[in-house]
Amino acid sequence: MDKGKHIKVLITKALEVINEVNAKALVLITSSLENEIPKVDVPIIVVGKDFDLSNDRIKKIPLPLSLGIKNVVNLVSAFLIENNIISYGETFVYVTPNTLGIRTVKKEIATTRGFFEEAQTVLQRLLEIAVELSLEGREGHPVGTIFVVGDTRNVLKYSHQIIPNPFKGHKLNVLDKNIKGIIKEFAMLDGAFIISNTGRILAAGRYLDVDPKKLDVHLPPGLGSRHLAAAGISKKTKATAITLSESGVIRVFKNGEIILEYNPRMRY
Ligand SMILES: Nc1ncnc2c1ncn2[C@@H]1O[C@H](COP(=O)(O)OP(=O)(O)OP(=O)(O)O)[C@@H](O)[C@H]1O
């Protein structure tokens, strides 16, 4: 039996499971949906690459499946809670090309307010890299870093090199196939990566010259200078900033606010 048939069988089974466990949503995690979307009373969420809110019954969440099923299910859980599709204590059923799963969301897993509306391909890719870096570190040591994406003219204006720019003169893009290893190597440098809207890496080792106090940025207590700088640059410019804390937590900032907070190291 081929893959397409497997998912059809799993979706049929999922409809039975939804009734049996009183699930409030059906989540289809698959890169291609040649199969018919099933007729079912609960909302359907399709996890795929592009963001496209097609109709009231079906929502599409842009998440790369390469994040791994555990991370995808965690982030989908947060999405369902924040969009009032399910409440804490309620259950959803998910289907991947080779698994059928049941998840009851018991506690806050992540904050994703606004993130999925922003998550274009470049941000999705950086989230994927940040998740890998959070889980693996560099040669087993925890790594922290900042990625600043978009509005590069202003970002460069409000930042300076603290070391010679290793990306100068190279046309490297975060969407390139073999780029992950290079980014992981340079993530150990102090400072930030500067990345264009199309994914071109313009610089690494860049200090962000923003004063969060003057910018009226308010973050939860306990977040240090890395996070304040990321929040600050996202307020001062139209860029989106992604931080990876040495503690493993990934945050995404837009306009000075946290629009995603997720710790891939946590067990939910
Ligand atoms: N303005 C800035 N621009 C770029 N990088 C910065 C800036 N401020 C701090 N950093 C980077 O953040 C690193 C960690 O700083 P600090 O420990 O104060 O931050 P933090 O927010 O507590 O981060 P973490 O959670 O990873 O410890 C610094 O070594 C430096 O590389």
From TrEMBL:
Annotated SUPFAM superfamilies: YojJ-like (SSF143597)
DAC domain boundaries: 108-264
Molecular functions per Gene Ontology: adenylate cyclase activity; ATP binding; diadenylate cyclase activity; manganese ion binding
Keyword ATP-binding attributed: yes
Keywords: ATP-binding, Manganese, Nucleotide-binding, Nucleotidyltransferase, Transferase
EC class name: transferase
Cofactor(s) this protein requires: Mn(2+)
PROSITE patterns listed in its UniProt record: DAC
Highest taxon of the lineage: Archaea
Catalytic activity: 2 ATP = 3',3'-c-di-AMP + 2 diphosphate
EC number: 2.7.7.85
Gene3D superfamilies: DNA integrity scanning protein, DisA, N-terminal domain
Cited function: Diadenylate cyclase that catalyzes the condensation of 2 ATP molecules into cyclic di-AMP (c-di-AMP). c-di-AMP is a second messenger for intracellular signal transduction involved in the control of important regulatory processes such as osmoregulation.
Record-stated family: Belongs to the adenylate cyclase family. DacZ subfamily.
Protein name, per record: Diadenylate cyclase
Provenance organism: Thermococcus paralvinellae
